[in-house]
Design goal:
single chain; about 130 residues; mainly alpha
Length: about 130
């Protein structure tokens, strides 16, 4: 099968609107209807949830597919439900499981600290010690 690679101008055209389409064009692979990546599917489902219990159920169901992006998404969703303590629990649980958390996850955790500025400052210090910026 012959691979077709998109011209650079097509990539620039589609990248802002559909990063997945731009990636498919760049790699020469056809775009599929569904998501082949389970963590992408999990993020989509997390964004559609309506309650905190559903967030926890999804995290448990997709346990092996949880990555730093999923953690940050789940924490943001929990914080919007007014469940900041639970969001911090997800952060701590993810760290304990050895998930390499990035700046986005740390920022979500700092945001979940609310008025507990001492905890937020400790997380910020940890972020800097890990060399993340």
């Amino acid at each position: 099968m012959k691979r077709l690679v998109a011209a650079p101008f097509l990539l620039l055209h589609f990248a802002p609107r559909s990063p997945a389409l731009a990636l498919a064009l760049a790699s020469g692979r056809p775009r599929r209807g569904g998501s082949a990546n389970p963590s992408t599917e999990l993020v989509r489902k997390l964004k559609q949830t309506r309650d905190a219990q559903e967030v926890f159920r999804l995290l448990d169901d997709y346990d092996e597919d949880v990555n730093t992006f999923v953690v940050a998404t789940a924490m943001g969703k929990l914080r919007r439900f007014g469940k900041s303590r639970e969001a911090l629990h997800v952060f701590k649980r993810s760290k304990a499981r050895g998930i390499a958390l990035n700046v986005v996850a740390y920022c979500a955790a700092i945001s979940a600290c609310g008025r507990n500025w001492e905890k937020a400052l400790a997380l910020f210090d940890e972020l800097q010690q890990r060399g993340l910026e």
